[in-house]
Specification:
Blueprint lengths: L6 E7 L4 H10 L3 E3 L2 E7 L4 E7 L4 E6 L2 H8 L4 E4 L1 E2 L2 E2 L4 H13 L1 E6 L7 E4 L9 E7 L2 E8 L4 E6 L7
């Protein structure tokens, strides 16, 4: 593979294999990141909170060299790397940091597949998302913060108190 670039890449996995691939790669000393959110599941006799991937069938991997690139493709359940044109797409550290902040501090996280209109750009002044640059938009009748994940053509939406915004 020519022109390999060290950094975060995105692997598309078989459905419901994100954790399995992540564990296999971690065992092979390849850094992975699988963003999760808590979801309430209701059965007839109980309510249970389960962790689900924010981006189903996708796993972020940090590749240091070509060996890691090929090693990650041999994990059971991994299908292919997400590409931009003919090149394997590289995810910026800033996007990974924003997703991590949203995962840790966001409430009622929702992934939007549709293109959302640009809103007012603000910085979160305090709280768990302190320092995150985001957009504030109206979505389903609520003010929500928006973080765009360009490589997946998705947007993360979360509730945040207006007192946290600067």
């Amino acid at each position: 593979m020519t022109n390999f670039k060290t950094g975060w890449h995105l692997i598309y996995t078989r459905p419901n294999h994100e954790r399995k691939v992540s564990i296999q790669l971690s065992d092979r000393k390849i850094e992975t990141y699988l963003p999760l959110f808590n979801e309430e599941r209701k059965w007839s006799d109980r309510i249970k909170i389960t962790q689900r991937p924010i981006f189903p069938c996708y796993l972020f991997v940090y590749l240091n060299n070509c060996d890691d690139y090929y090693e990650a493709m041999h994990a059971e359940g991994s299908c292919y790397y997400v590409k931009s044109g003919s090149r394997v797409a590289l995810v910026s550290n800033e996007e990974i940091d924003h997703i991590r902040l949203m995962e840790k501090g966001g409430r009622n996280i929702e992934v939007a597949n549709t293109i959302l209109q640009a809103g007012q750009r603000l910085i979160i002044g305090h709280g768990p998302l302190h320092g995150l640059s985001c957009e504030v938009i109206q979505h389903k009748g609520k003010d929500r913060i928006l973080v765009r994940v360009s490589i997946l053509q998705r947007s993360l939406l979360a509730d945040i108190p207006s007192s946290s915004l600067v």
